[in-house]
Amino acid sequence: DAKTTQPNSMESNEEEPVHLPCNHSTISGTDYIHWYRQLPSQGPEYVIHGLTSNVNNRMASLAIAEDRKSSTLILHRATLRDAAVYYCILSGEYGNKLVFGAGTILRVKS
Amino acid sequence: DTEVTQTPKHLVMGMTNKKSLKCEQHMGHRAMYWYKQKAKKPPELMFVYSYEKLSINESVPSRFSPECPNSSLLNLHLHALQPEDSALYLCASSQGPGANEQYFGPGTRLTVT
Asked: Which residues of chain A are under the pLDDT cut of 70?
């Protein structure tokens, strides 16, 4: 399974944009990039996924580098409820086999 | 209804007990998963069921026995567990195998004494 590298933690101010980076230099051509987050005392929650093009949904945007070796999850206006562990995951050979890395702990300050 | 429910929320069991964890979804999803999450660690995949058949077993010890009686229900039968098996057990489902969005339940917090 291809690996991802994320910063251990990041801090943001409320109502400001947050850019969460992820490196995946060994990504293969068929790997999708997924982002999940896990709020305290909850199960993980799907955020967004993409293959090559940038993606937007109601929760976030995903910017994928042209060479696909890195990506950035963008939260446009962080709120206190966005404080969570954010996981960047490559889907690997099977689209349903998620291998979670350590993730980034996002702290949001009011 | 986009919810995955898990029961019980908490479970304490002795090493000689037999217990079961239950997971249910009514979204018509045909793939279901069990994950294990130790404290302050990421979730680890244990099993994947596709169309009620076991498709992935991540070399999980036989004291964990999954069962998928129908497309809405997933069980995890536990027997002769060890204290190191204490963890949060998460269930998830997706529309089908290869689907890109998994929906997770809140988990069952298991303590083995």
From this structure: 1-2, 92-95
